[in-house]
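REQUEST FORM: STRUCTURE PREDICTION
Request ID: SP-0412
Submitted by: Lab K.M.
Chain count: 1
Length (residues): 217
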Amino acid sequence: MSSDYRDYVFRDGRFVGLFEEMYRNAGEVPWHQDETARWLLSDITLAIVRNFRPGRFLELGCGLGYFTARVNAEKSTGIGFVAGVDISATAIDKARAMHAGITFARANILDSGEIGALLKNLGGPFNMVLSKELMWYILDDLPQFMSNLAMLIAPGGMLYVSQTFPDSTPFYGIDRFPNARVMSDYFESYFSRQYECIERDAQLGNREMLHFVGKKL
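STATUS: Completed
RESULT:
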């Protein structure tokens, strides 16, 4: 047991992914979601979502729902139904309590059966699916992740990957995605690139951050 949320995610250079235990026991808000949802980097992500005006929007790995709530507040700009999904039931319960009126659901995004049930419960696939700061947690099951994305995204719909890269090397996942360019090119093999920006964010120590929006082929 630990009060440090990082101990439940990566330990001794390995991914452990004990997200339910993390949300139950961590002594602080994991990844400071309450603060980072209002940072400039999240403002940029929100502006990109707003630009595409998705009729149905889903955030994967929404955690406590802070960013999902920001997207939901943009409905007047043309964004329609908004939902968030997370593997942790505790996180989803807390998100529902804090952000009333927004749809949150628990599901393992690497389990095709749970994704099928999620789609049935939420009315079908989405026009935009956001993967925000999620990639390092699904690397061991990347083919399954891509297969499930195909289920989640409607024909002509889009995937938006918003991903920050670690500030030191080596890091977990460097063998698969050593930098933002490699990650962007990987997704372009599955999606038609509609928008791309690779920034270096001074707020995060000049680390690379990828914004990739691709249309389902």
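NOTES: The longest helix spans residues 40-52.
Reviewed by: T.R.
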